[in-house]
Amino acid sequence: MKKLYTAVVTATGGRRGQVKSDDGIIDMKLSLPEGLGGQGGSTNPEQLFAAGYSACFQSALLVVAGKHHERLDPASTVTAHVDLNQKDDGGYALSVKLAVALKGVDKDKARQMVDEAHQICPYSIGTRGNVDVELEVL
């Protein structure tokens, strides 16, 4: 495998701490979501994961669209819903729903493109077999 890029982000203080990238572009306070007893007002690991997954998946869709000789409407979106779940054994797990709206694309064609993007998206590949991922075509 040929390495293309390495992102470097350091976390301090866990879910109530700080994350900072080596280039300083990301420098954010973290907090527990209000739904978990936190004060809110800051981001959390699930939001950051959702941001990365949705952006990566949309890029995969652009690759797939090109192979199908389709141009995606710039208003097309990928919304990632990332759930933090507590398992029966007391452990934790993530689950994801990707809601994809491909403006101006027939629903069957959109479903095909979403399925193909799920096969090539690095986040989808990395989570396969470890995280339940639901694909919703709007």
TrEMBL record:
NCBIfam families: organ_hyd_perox (TIGR03561). Signal peptide: none annotated. One of its GO terms (biological process) is response to oxidative stress. InterPro entries: KH_dom-like_a/b, OHR, OsmC/Ohr_fam, OsmC/Ohrsf. This is Organic hydroperoxide resistance protein. Pfam families: OsmC. It comes from Pontibacter mangrovi. Belongs to the OsmC/Ohr family.
